[in-house]
Structure of MMPL family transporter:
Amino acid sequence: MPSERLLPRLFLILLVAVLALAGWQWRHGAPLSANLMELVPGNTPDALEQQAEQRMQEPLNREMLVLVGHADRQQAVTVAQQLGERWQASGLFEKVQWNLQADLPALREQLLRGRLAMLSAKDREQLIEQPDAFIQQRVQALFDPFTGFSLVPSQDDWLGLTGRIQNSQPQHGAVQLDIGSGALIADADGKSWVLLRARTTGNAFDMKLPLQVADLLQASRAQASEHGAQLLAASGLLYAANGQQQATREITWVGGGATVGILLLLLLAFRRWRVLLAFVPVLVGMLFGAVACVALFGHMHVMTLVLGSSLIGVAVDYPLHYLSKSWSMNPWRSWPALRITLPGLSLSLATSCIGYLALAWTPFPALTQIAVFSAAGLVGAYLSAVCLLPALLKGVELRPAQWPLRIAECLWLVRASLLKRVPSPVLLALLLLFCAGGLWHLNSKNDIRQWIGAPPQLLQEAQAVARITGFQPTSQFFLVRADNQQQLLERQAALGQRLDQLVNMDKLQGYLALNQLVSLPAEQQRLRDALNRLPEHWQPLLDLGVPASALQAEVAQLQALPTEDIDAALLGPLAEPWRTLWLGPVDGGVAAMVSLQGLNNPALLRVQALDLPGVQLVDRLGDLNRVFADTQISAAELKLMSCVLIVLLLILPFGFGGALRIVALPLLAALCSLASLGWLGQPLTLFSLFGLLLVTAISVDYAILMREQIGGPAVSLLGTLLAALTTWLSFGLLAVSSTPAVSNFGLSVSLGLAFSFMLAPWAGQQKHAL
């Protein structure tokens, strides 16, 4: 027939065009992304909030903290120095710092210039309210040179304001400066740990850099061990490298394992080498899915590729639709077999695409991308199975093995025997009781950390680095907006009073805010006024031998200092910890952030911002987890809407009752899978729900097969069994993934497929059908 010659040619033209498009998309390398944040909703319409998040996230994505530990302090410093020089020469890092190379003249200049603006609130209040105590402490400091080290000599700062500013700087956790080497060292576990900080040229979402950094770290560990030293490292780059390696492994064994299993199944069942051509639709489907993703999104995420590799088992179902008829057609011919099964095959594609594309409308980029990949892949597999594969199998006489058919006949007889003893309504009631019990035990859990299958070694090292150094940055921070700098500092001071209470209660380790660096202009003026009264109290300094003229000259210098604002305070080297917190002028006002350290209870933070104008808590992690829960509801709603569309689509070929039954059975299978998660103690997550929604899309295909019963019930059941096995070989392997989200997804689909196969026979027109 003309169509048997025309269809393959038209499809080959389409295939060449898609291959050309794929080649153009990959012309600059693989358009893959490892950025996890691209898969989560961008529900931040505020540009300032986005800017603040990027500013806070950049150190996590580009910086690496390394501790070099050795029982001998000097040896630890030596190894850290060698390591730092090697890393700097590697070309992977923008900056590698193992010691402090302070600009002492600049430090002295900033301290002298900021004596009024940078004095801490505690010291400022003492000078204003208790000048006698202030002078007495200064006398003690001058009399006892061991009370502290000051960068500014006494003759330049008789009142000791610079020393107080220097001593009130935020402490870097448990890390102390080693004066001799300039290294930052912490002592713990009987070792001296030298801190090394490295900033990479790219970020953690680069597809090559994290792996290169991980390899360099591994080589450095070996180098350090030769000197008896130990290395501990913490960085988002290491998690990214592990994620990429894990994705590569899982794509290999999920895709490879499913491929090998399906090929063996085809060979064992059909006993013809050419039947392996049934895998062509799978390859075409993967190609169409990848091209569609890159065309719509500009790239494809590696997680889409991992989950998309499970499409193999679904795509091979299409050729199985007519290959399985070889048990009833004698002789079997490819084109006639296709014509018999084409209506059911087309309905399967339509219902599956409706099911997948319904998820594309959720506000979750991860689901959207996976849905587009899967729907496009199924279209490609369908076109290949309908237009090309029958031509490739032309002339093949299939004489399939009889043992699969005997298994199917046996299963059908067992079912019939069961129904004679236990009617369908009773079975349904028992099944619903099973579902009720499982749903009672089911708990919901939505946490973006389920997407990261970090090995225990990385987590333990990160915890060790945090414990030894005292650095425990949090993902939450406060964003403060104001009309001007003075109002901004006032609002940060009001927030700081509340955060100080959390620090005193050990609920928070500490925080950084700009009002700690520079005081309000009004406070600077109060300090000037207090200096005018200071001569009444400085007699103890005169008794110590300090010339009155020197004190008078210093007070005059202090009175002449200009009022410092935030911009001026941020110019000096002492401002380095605060510099990233300043967002500057924004929309006619100004904005800045308050960063947090060592948070024990994130729920306490939201209360701190209440009734404080212009103060906003930015908790991206918490917001995302709430979005996960909302997305579960919207995905379920969209799925129910898609089921209504599928029923409407199936009314014409099967009638209203048949269409309703075909859709009800997959929904019941999904409900049973959900209950099984409860009985197994597994949580309901967004990805397990996504898996169940896929089950409803895939299972409609099984119900249609059993409804049509082309070739008889046993042959149709065998076709359903083969389709379920091939699909399970793909999705089932995901259940053993080391990424919790992927594993949960694979488990829910595997359970759903098992229930779908068991319930599919009730789609037939039987008196005992449900």
The chain has a mean pLDDT of 83. Residues 620-679 form the longest helix (60 residues). The two ends are 42 Å apart (CA to CA).
